[in-house]
Specification:
homodimer, alpha+beta, Arc Repressor Mutant, subunit A, 21 strands
């Protein structure tokens, strides 16, 4: 191997020292805002470790460095020499080595809940075939009932009223209780409801037969008059139908607008086409037609769930996922159903941890809560959406002092913020997470909040090259 | 060729007729909601044209049919036989043949405006190197002025007040006039302004040196105190700076949130990585870092600009762009800067027409207006954003009768709608487009509006398989 190296004609000017077997590279410390390249000279006998030591000395850094070239991590000295031969320049970037070992402890399948406690209703994702069978069963039962006991013929539907929704402590999810409503022919208003409900079943049955996806609005337009020209009626019926059949809205092929974007070390198929998320900076738009998505593959160590797309763009441009093997996702604020379901599937199918990266304010924590335990509005579907073991990586209120964020970049809590903090402190999901509770209490005590972008006030790449690596390296998630 | 066919062992049950050289396929008319497969038998001597005639007879349709298999268009009879051999099934989809000839007349480069009329200020996209040079020039001029005539030292900045913005008839764009404001050291408030402006120039200069992209908020956080802890101040300075240097905000590497998604017959590079937009259903999220996007390639005949993502999803699932070679884009409502700039680049670099597909209501037309002539808020950048020759394809108010949209699916105009219509009718950009004016007047006369999804009330695939093909085939854009 050594002999081979001597034969190579190294075409880099700076490599022609008095000793022909010497190599010179320029390294930039990427933690700084204005990195100044430092010259590092080593000879052919050097190992990667000894080169790293030379880099450490020349840059005067106090951590184990890792070399990168064009965003790609250098694995051995031969790679450096190959790059010098390719005339791609002799400039290498230096980053902090991050220990990912502790992340591996977070791996593994999320506990699958098969038994739900008495008094709780959940719906499941089901394949089209199953859903069609269920619709047929309900229709047959209804017809039989209409023949034998017409006064009682109708449907039983879970109540969607607020007092039928609650946080279930053992499962750590926001779930729906088992209060039911009967829709029968007894009263005139119910006659209409039953007719509307039957029509909605027919429409959805057609959609499933066609194997296409529709929106609530599409279904409304299928028969405007029967729904009294009021989409709230048809929307409610779709919810009722999911509840009655115990399937998710997605299983009815009814989709909603999706805002999520994904980028990083992930590939999957969409309707059979391979989608590689590791390319470029724009990211893949997460489709709401999630049943067309399949075959997840990834060598990422974690998923970084990001509140804002400005932060997503910063990490995309820095190719953060080439530095720390990861998948980055943002729903641009409060997450939609598709993004939540997508994250849940990543958690289950890749079995890697999900780390939340939100603003250090009550709104950021509310977003994290929706990903983690679900929302009241969609409590029926929580079991297919909530990722109960999401870790809160940042921005923690305690990070503000720890990472010396300038006080100029912090904002005062508003009265509204204080109320939200106090209200969350009373919630079971916070009580069940003592360290989250501590952070919330600290926020109140400091009377300060901060956006993730406050990290920019240190320098523009502080987040990518210092904050996140240090957080991960020190296992500083809660 | 004929001899060869006889040698083939056709493993499709239905092809074993009394005559061994007969083939049977099943065709479905995709225009219908519940397509019933029809059996079509032909022998080895058949041409594609004769098969199409048999299909026409068996389905009883009145148009030239085109056969598809798994979304791929059939080009000759050999392809059909190959598919039968592959045991992929013997079911073929039938669609209307669409004449795309007239679309080609709309091709060609958009008139590039090099001379702007006196009294109008525009800014341009410029490469980083140019912008840095401009910043250096402004800084040097300012220093010289401070030495020779300190009382007048300062910057000239175009006024962003409403009366300095207007529609320019010849160029068909919303542009900024040449009223200027002087920011000098004369008054105390100006001293602060000049200090803030200098600081912003320094910050942006650093960003350009680093070759990274930042948000307005990032820049604010770089020096919160000099901007009096008020982001409106730093935001205004960024606008001023673009105006003073006569470059777009994007050229300053200052980006904003982007919502756009693109799918279809298009590929490009992002930071050197090849992005193929023809795969899957989710689409590529349009990056706001558009200077990293390059090398557009496409065999599309047109770009379909869609108001809503629900419509985008329907066309994505139907793989509309495999049927009619196209690129589909949505900004999910009012377009952001990045999506507008992306569409402008597609128009210029691919030289294919852009067809707008909006709701038939005043809001839909307002969205189309922003794409077409620009917005008041971003009038300074209009020349890099406005695509003045966008065609309004649909949903035209006149389509409602022409395509027999059920009256149930139409909505009454609100008072607000009527006001918006009347206000738009007074605008120069509508006056300059007599057929747009007619449609607006028709909307007022009918006193009805309609969403694109109203097409679903015909049947769920009416939009993909009937409405859009008929519109394109009959050149029904204005």
């Amino acid at each position: 191997m050594m002999g081979k190296r001597n034969d190579r004609n190294i075409n880099v000017k700076s490599s022609k020292g008095p000793n022909k077997n010497q190599f010179t590279i320029f390294t930039r410390d990427l933690r700084l805002n204005k990195p100044v390249p430092q010259k590092v000279i080593f000879d052919e006998s050097a190992s990667l470790k000894s080169v790293e030591n030379l880099v450490k000395q020349s840059l005067g850094i106090d951590f184990k460095p890792v070399l990168f070239h064009n965003g790609k991590k250098i694995e051995d000295v031969d790679e450096i020499i190959k790059i010098l031969e390719q005339k791609n320049g002799n400039s290498f970037d230096v980053r902090r080595n991050v220990n990912l070992a502790k992340l591996k402890y977070l791996r593994g399948r999320q506990e699958t809940v098969t038994e739900f406690p008495f008094g709780v209703i959940v719906v499941k994702d089901e394949p089209i075939k199953e859903v069609r069978k269920k619709i047929e069963e309900v229709a047959i039962n209804f017809s039989l009932q209409a023949l034998t006991d017409p006064a009682r013929a109708g449907f039983r539907i879970p109540s969607r009223s607020a007092d039928n929704v609650g946080y279930e402590e053992d499962l750590k999810m926001m779930l729906m209780g088992n209060q039911f409503i009967d829709r029968t022919f007894r009263s005139l208003s119910s006659v209409q409801s039953v007719a509307q409900f039957s029509e909605m079943m027919r429409l959805v049955y057609n959609v499933l037969n066609e194997s296409i996806h529709v929106t609530k609005r599409d279904l409304f337009y299928q028969n405007v008059s029967i729904f009294n020209k009021d989409q709230r009626i048809s929307d409610g019926l779709i919810e009722d139908m999911g509840a009655a059949l115990q399937v998710t809205r997605n299983s009815l092929n009814v989709i909603a607008s999706a805002k999520g974007v994904v980028l990083g070390r992930l590939s999957f198929t969409e309707k059979g086409d391979l989608i590689d998320c590791s390319k470029g900076v724009g990211g893949r738009s997460i489709t709401p037609m999630l049943d067309l998505v399949d075959n997840f593959e990834s060598d990422a160590e974690f998923v970084l769930l990001i509140e804002k797309d400005a932060v997503f763009n910063r990490l995309a441009e820095d190719r953060f996922f080439d530095y720390l093997p990861s998948i980055i996702i943002t729903a641009k604020g409060q997450p939609d159903l598709a993004t939540r379901a997508f994250v849940k599937r990543l958690r289950n199918e890749l079995q890697i941890p999900i780390l939340g990266f939100m603003d250090a304010d009550p709104y950021g924590l509310e977003i994290l809560r929706v990903y983690t335990i679900g929302s009241k509005a969609m409590s029926l579907e929580t079991s297919e959406l909530a990722v109960t073991d999401i870790k809160w990586l940042g921005l923690l209120p305690s990070d503000l002092e720890k990472y010396e964020i300038p006080s100029d970049a912090l904002l005062d809590l508003s009265e509204q913020d204080i109320k939200r903090c106090e209200s969350m402190l009373r919630e079971d999901f916070v009580k069940a997470r003592p360290r989250w509770k501590e952070e919330l209490e600290l926020m109140l005590k400091m009377d300060k909040k901060a956006e993730i972008q406050a990290l920019s006030s240190k320098h523009l790449r502080f987040m990518t090259n210092e904050y996140l690596p240090l957080k991960i390296d020190s296992n500083d998630w809660i």
